[in-house]
Amino acid sequence: MSPGLLETIRRANRTRAAEDSVAVRIAVLGAVMTGAFALALEAAISVPTAVGVLVLMPVAYYISYRRRRKDNWHIKLALTAAAIIGLIRFFGQLGGIATLDEVRFPLADLFLWVQVIHGFDLPARKDLNFSLGASLTLMAVAGSISQDLRFLFPLLAYLGFGGAALILSYRSELGEASQGWARPTRPGSSPDKAGREPFRAFAITLAVAALLFMVVPRPQGTRTFALPFSFGSGLGTPGLGGITNPGFLDNPLTRTSAAAYYGFGSEVDLRVRGDLPDDLVMRVRASAPAMWRGLAFDRYDGTRWSLPDKDPVPFAGDAPYAYPIEFRSLGPRQEVVETFYIEREQANVVFSGGQPDVVWFEGSISVDELGSLRTDSTLTPGTVYSVVSTRGAAEPDRLRSMTGSEPDERTRRYLKLPPELPERVGRLAARITRDAPTPYDKVKAIEGWLADKYRYRIDSPVPPEGRDAVDHFLFDTDVGFCEQFASATAVMLRTLGIPARVVVGFTPGNRSAFTGYYNVRASDAHMWVEVFFDQLGWYEFDPTFAIPLAEFDLGEVVPLVKVLRSIIDVVSGLVPEGMGGAVRVGLILLLVVTGVVGGYIAYRKLYRPRVRGPSRTGHRDLGPVGRAFARFENGFAGSRRRRSDETASEFMARSLGSLREPSATALRAFERERYGDEDPTPEEETAAVEELRRLAEMTRADER
Question: Structure pTM?
Fold first, then answer.
């Protein structure tokens, strides 16, 4: 390489303004390493990659600091080669992804690789700022796949490192980093107050962020073009064409797992009892809350509900699978998009938030005669699948207008009853619904009657041998749980000529305000009823009054609503009985008035007329000339420092003496920028900044 070319390369790569602050570099390094740790915590990168990054990054930053004033052209040449290797590696990883959703993982890996490479060449503040901004991308990727609160710990660490990096970088820009934290940042400010100002600004930022977190509506569900799906920890127990429940492998009446629900099987025996624990079984990210529908049952024999005898039909082709048109309902529908993340081994049942339309699943799935979906083996932890489904969205008036019709081949199976069913069940249904003219009114009448006459209890009496379970529940007890309520409703509707069936699945679960996922537990397993309406299809009803049907709740989207609701409920419960309603109304009015008054005060503080004087938060709104003046001002020490009662003009006159006249240009530009109606022209601004820079250098020389 010729000496001339080498010199040109060196000159082009020469650092013009090296960043000397070690504190800034440590804070940025901490932010980047926290981002890498967050990715590793969420399994977005492999363990060897994470270890390599966490070891190499400090080495890279140390080398970069030691060589910050050198041209480093040979290092940059090596980094260019490393970047090409990283790009080749990225394209190699793309070949192993199954969906567009998974592209973010090789992208995160590539971005992390770039961070390591870039860490070897961070001579200037702008380079460190780039790394700090890039670390936010790493945190965003980790946050997008986080499903629980463990992400909170790296997030808090990142806020600490990131906030410190921003504050230190800002102070370094003003030429203060090497002089300690306690130097004044504005005229008249004490060292202690100046040192507290960055922390005060950071605290205000966190407070505003927390407020926004509480009041800004949460996005519901995912917004991806291709929904995620993948296998879990391996193939589960084979289904062999039927339903395989890992908690009831040996005997359908004997539970081998405390978290297993006996409803996820080929039959539901109404004589089985048992409470379910709160073990987490899956997480669901959905565009709206829904009942997670699993299996539908149509055959009732007096003690059990069972599935059709025919073998399910496998879907043809590969994912995404389209739901057969013969099972689709008509009328107005609401779309629900959901992704299921399996946390505990489950039966080979594919859940959906209603009637499935499109299913993303890794592997083959089948559909039975009632439209329920199943897989070839049990679902193991780590399995992910997505479903686009629809729920009936007809208003009650529309449902009420459906007067029913003669049963046809499609609905006749949902009217069958066991011959041994006591006639008094039908007479009771007729008496309950005698004032209900339409099928919808009859459903609501039965729901209301059950809610009024019966109590919810898990340990309800078991029907004696030979007794019909529904008859025993209706006439011999006054307690039951979801299986009894749903079965009694479906059977009574069938006696009235209304097609009905029972469905097992899960209630929505509790939605985490931090992650947006619905945490579904074993205790959320449930049974409800589906009723067929002509021209509209199947609609879900939940007669179990103790468990409300899934519906939109503003508190799930705006956390502040849930917090205020909890406060109102707690206070209402502390007052004497009968006064809760009045207290509730009073609290709501008080909160509304407080919000209006607080908003008005904030508006007056933010928008009242004010002069462009020195900011209470230091240099927050300084322009180029103001920042140059601050650097000039901070060069004085002891008795020469600017006093709190001095104007800028008086300070310069006292401090500069014979140099006062040459500083007039800079002083005029500063006063126009800070207090005038018009900013100085670009030419005046440039001249003032240059003059103040020259004066600052002279001042530092005098101080030394």
Answer: 0.64
